[in-house]
Write a structure and sequence with these properties.
Jelly Rolls, Arc Repressor Mutant, subunit A, elongated, 2 domains
């Protein structure tokens, strides 16, 4: 395992305040592995054997039912999944696959649970991480249930702008099919919603978004902190998509 991997993992909120001896013991039993694009990492319904830490690449979390599939999140470096199943020693509720060649640290769930019981600071961090994930999940459910598809897309673009430091121009970092699935719609519906938002101050060129009138876009969504967040002290993105990048000048 590379020293840089340990440093980046140690700086995650989940591991930041735990005892050094506890972190060293946890990482001693962890293994680093490389995976090709499209590799299935875990399957929903399987027992949670490892906490996964993404150190390179990106991983899609998704769920299947009756021949249907939906994107739940995309995890990028440095991020973890799926903590709740590991803590409870229960089956995964989601599957995971790499979107590109990726490198991950696999932390045995049995060791994680053992250290959880004896390191109070680590236990507090786990509770905080799970609480953050729950609140993000609740917001996502409210967004899906209470807003129209057009409102969801407008809200998503406003959030991406916020994540880009309030920039009016930014580049979406993931495929539109993943955005559509995450927002509970087909790619065709996403395209129609994006086209309709041109009258609300949005210009789209490929993956580059330009907000030409923020007040009009806000009117199309009516942002609400109880749906859109964020909380003042966010520990985990929970169920979410990666933030945007600023366009090259």
């Amino acid at each position: 395992m590379r020293p840089d991997d340990l440093t980046e993992t140690r700086n995650l909120p989940l591991f930041r305040t735990m005892l050094t001896a506890s972190f060293d013991a946890l990482m001693h039993s962890a293994v680093a592995e490389r995976f090709p694009a499209g590799q299935e990492l875990i399957r929903q319904g399987a027992r949670a054997d490892f906490l996964h830490v993404v150190v390179e690449g990106s991983v899609e979390l998704y769920a299947d039912w009756q021949g249907r599939s939906t994107t739940m999140a995309v995890v990028q470096p440095v991020g973890t999944f799926i903590l709740a199943a590991c803590v409870r020693d229960l089956p995964y509720l989601m599957s995971a696959r790499t979107l590109e060649p990726s490198r991950l640290l696999l932390v045995p769930a049995t060791d994680l649970r053992a250290i959880f019981r004896r390191d109070p600071e680590f236990a507090v961090s786990i509770v905080g991480e799970l609480a953050g994930a729950f609140r993000t999940m609740a917001r996502h459910a409210k967004n899906l249930k209470l807003r129209t598809s057009r409102e969801r897309v407008a809200g998503y673009l406003l959030k991406q702008s916020l994540l880009a430091g309030g920039a009016d121009r930014f580049v979406l970092q993931i495929e539109k099919r993943l955005v559509a699935s995450y927002l509970g719609m087909t790619r065709e519906n996403l395209s129609r919603a994006l086209k309709s938002l041109e009258e609300n101050g949005v210009s789209l060129r490929g993956h580059e978004v330009t907000i030409t009138d923020r007040s009009l876009l806000s009117e199309a969504c009516k942002p609400d902190i109880l749906i859109d967040g964020p909380d003042p002290e966010l520990m985990s993105d929970g169920v979410s998509l990666p933030g945007p990048a600023l366009p090259h000048k």
